Amino acid sequence: MKKFDVAIAGGGVIGGAIALELGRAGFEVAVFDRQQPGQEASWASAGILSPAPENPGMVTMVPLGKASLALYPEFVAQVEEISGKSTGFRPKGTLEALFSHDTKAELSTIIALHHGLGLNAEPLRAEDARELEPALSEEVEAAVLRPEEGSVDNRALTAAILEAARRSDAEIFSGNGAKAIWREGNRCAGLVLQNEKVAAKWTIIAAGCFSATIEGIAPYAPVRPAKGQMAALRADDLRIERVLWSEKIYLVPRNDGRILAGATVEYAGFDKRTTAGGIRKILSAAIELAPGLTNARIEETWAGLRPDSPDHLPILGPTDMDGLLMATGHFRSGILLTPVTARLLREWITEQRVSVDWDRFSPLRFKTEKTEATKKMPA
Ligand SMILES: Cc1cc2nc3c(=O)[nH]c(=O)nc-3n(C[C@H](O)[C@H](O)[C@H](O)COP(=O)(O)OP(=O)(O)OC[C@H]3O[C@@H](n4cnc5c(N)ncnc54)[C@H](O)[C@@H]3O)c2cc1C
Predict the structure, then answer these.
(1) Taking CA atoms, which of 11, 201, 261, 264 is between 20 and 30 Å from 231?
(2) In this structure, are residues 272 and 209 in contact, taking their beta carbons and an 8 Å threshold?
(3) Cβ distance 356 to 314 under 8 Å?
(4) Regarding beta strands 2-9 and 94-98, do their DSSP bridges make them parallel or antiparallel, or are they unpaired?
(5) 304 and 243 belong to one structural domain
(6) 316 and 370, same structural domain?
(7) Torsional class of 95: left (φ above 0), alpha (ψ -120 to 50), beta (otherwise)
């Protein structure tokens, strides 16, 4: 039987980054993926790095997002150096375009909200926004510039992280997924794979939206897939420098000239097919934001499955079973949250304390909610 210090189920960006971090810390680490690693959400993503909350429910995640964004330059430099691969990191800012006619009030509310959360955001008049990004529509009334944000090429990043993990002595096994956790009383002794068991002192579940399909995991990580459809466009005569947002769409420029447009959020089970309606919605919102895209070529369309949790927040840290930890539920922010997730898991395993408060993201919050609900039920 194989034996490791750490066994990780799932070789996406999260499992790969944890393996890298722990491999570098001297642990014997193994990653088990049921298929070729790095081909799920981490491949399908847009790679935007933005800790700004999309809605009030996401405010709780801002400190985690900010901490991760601050780690990014050092993290990608390390990954690129160890792997010898580029990650397409673009710390060039993001620009949110406002179309409403009452932009003055909207703009000051957005800026005040950002500043209240300690996020850098600058108001821009429409003409100044178009000077920075000439591709923006004439209909844009004002904009918010978030200069510290940016993007990374998530496909390149994931491949580089997996390579860096291998070069840091982590073993990565393809086509050998976890069926269950290996329980011994109140201890998790490792993973039950397709045809064997592997023993580990620490077992980490990082199987994205599939985590709850591993037997024994659903009470800690009741995640479900949230499908996102995307399109990659190329327009020879159009330059976009920063990530552009409107309330309907984002456009993400890549170093190779492609412009990614996305994304839908759909609850359609594990279905990864693109649909006419989904792609139409993306293309019409993209053209509304940057009309020059009308003649752009469509190079690729795809869909991926985000790991969503019941409160849309990540699920991180130890469980009530000795040796079992979760690193999943990153929903729409898993690429942003990769460096901080890897660091927190390493800190917990090596020192049993963490540098960023993660109590709010505990895997035990779902078990507690269930117990409370059960208590309230009439006899
Ligand atoms: C369309 C789209 C756009 C997105 N845009 C952004 C963005 O702009 N910014 C951002 O920060 N985030 C974004 N996200 C979210 C981000 O991509 C995810 O949160 C992140 O990739 C999750 O990484 P992961 O490693 O947890 O999961 P995944 O990448 O899904 O990896 C999970 C891995 O587990 C493996 N697996 C499955 N079952 C098992 C098993 N039983 N045993 C072992 N292995 C198993 C899978 O094969 C897979 O390799 C987006 C996601 C999508 C789909």
Answers:
(1) 11
(2) no
(3) no
(4) unpaired
(5) yes
(6) yes
(7) beta
CA distance 124 to 126: 6
Amino acid at 313: L
Give the separation between CA 315 and CA 271, rounded to whole angstroms: 23
Contact (Cβ atoms closer than 8 angstroms) between residue 1 and residue 199? yes
User: Ligand 1 pocket check: which of 20, 32, 34, 172 to mutate, most ligand atoms within 8 Å of Cβ?
Assistant: 34
| Full residue range of the structural domain in which residue 118 is found | 91-150+225-308
The CB of 262 under 6 Å from ligand 1? The reply is: yes
If DSSP states are collapsed to H, E and C, what string results for 184-216? ECCEEEEEEECCCEEEEEEEEECCHHHHHHCEC
Q: pLDDT digits over 82-106, tens only?
A: 999 999 999 999 999 999 877 888 8
CA of 209 to the centre of ligand 1 (A): 7
CATH code of residue 278: 3.30.9.10
Distance of CA 251 to the CA centre of its chain: 17
- The pTM of this model reads 0.96
Average pLDDT over residues 118-145: 96
- Cβ 333 under 6 angstroms from ligand 1: yes
- Look up tokens 């993990």; give the residue: 165
Q: What is the pLDDT of residue 370?
A: 53
Domain count, the chain: 2
**Do both 51 and 135 map to the same domain?**
no
| Domain boundary pick from 257, 281, 308 | 308
